[in-house]
Amino acid sequence: MIIVPLKEGENIEKALKKFKRKYEKTGVVKELRRRQEFRKPSVVKREQKLHAVYVQAMHRSEE
């Protein structure tokens, strides 16, 4: 459970921002989306490798 303590006279928008940040850090939404459909481990590894190759190419092009 996420608890956001409010200070005396604190704006509700600031409290909502704090709550949203804490909620995003927990990764609940990301985990729900990941679990919506099953992906084989081999497919996941292949995607990770392709992403790593892409990131390396981007870093090389910057230099």
UniProtKB/TrEMBL annotation:
One of its GO terms (cellular component) is ribosome. InterPro entries: Ribosomal_bS21, Ribosomal_bS21_sf. It comes from the Bacteria. The keyword 4Fe-4S does not apply. Coiled coil: none annotated. Keywords: Ribonucleoprotein, Ribosomal protein. The keyword Ribosomal protein applies. Belongs to the bacterial ribosomal protein bS21 family. This is Small ribosomal subunit protein bS21.
